[in-house]
Amino acid sequence: MYAMVAPPDNDVLWARALHHSHNGSPALQGVSLGVREGEILAVSGPRGSGKTTLLRCLSGRLVPRDGEVWFNSAPVHTMTPLQRERLRRDRFGWIGPAPDLVPELTAWENTALPLMLRGTSRRAAKAAALDWLERLDAGDCARKRPHALLHGQRQRVAIARALVTMPSVLFADEPTAPLHRADGAQVLRTLTAAARSHRITVLLATHDPQVAALADRTAHLLDGRRVNSVQQLDGAEGRDACSLSV
């Protein structure tokens, strides 16, 4: 057991000793992490290493079995479901590997939805949505509904929706997985440039070293643990070669 203490002042997001399991299988095993305000942190590792589970715990979408998660001075891990929902709505943004758009709404309406849910006027929300769609080269999709868009276009709309609120922290879980490499690189450049210009903290989960290279720093995961680096080695011998970070 340990005493619960607030995170360092310069960390906007901080986690200590996170443990979580899925159906009895360990997904996180003692992961600790600190993220500074305005920092772009890549969470890197092979598929199944715990990246998505970590982002879900840090964003309040999932309550870890053990451990602490702090956003500024607020303990996310002890919040009620309603408090976590408000935090995600008001301060966090989320981009998943697959776009989750409302089929009845046009692209601009999907993008503007988080603003309108906050009470922003339709006119102002539409202007902001159209601006972000243009930045992501999806302006010509604005009046189309999701069924009329290509998968890559839908993902651009989902990314615009996550950025339109200017969140304090943006969680991006393999955000360019549906895109071709060239399109994905362009979208990531737009995303990271926007984050830097608006001081948005970004946690970017990826198994692609080229994507991770766009970040300020990389935290490596392997089998649900922090490691110093993830080497492409086979079997337990390869896992043993990766020393755990303190």
TrEMBL record:
GO terms for molecular function: ATP binding. Pfam families: ABC_tran. Residues 13-246 form the ABC transporter domain. Keywords: ATP-binding, Nucleotide-binding. InterPro entries: AAA+_ATPase, ABC_transporter-like_ATP-bd, ABC_transpr_LolD-like, P-loop_NTPase. The keyword Transcription regulation does not apply. Belongs to the ABC transporter superfamily. This is ATP-binding cassette domain-containing protein. It comes from Streptomyces gobitricini.
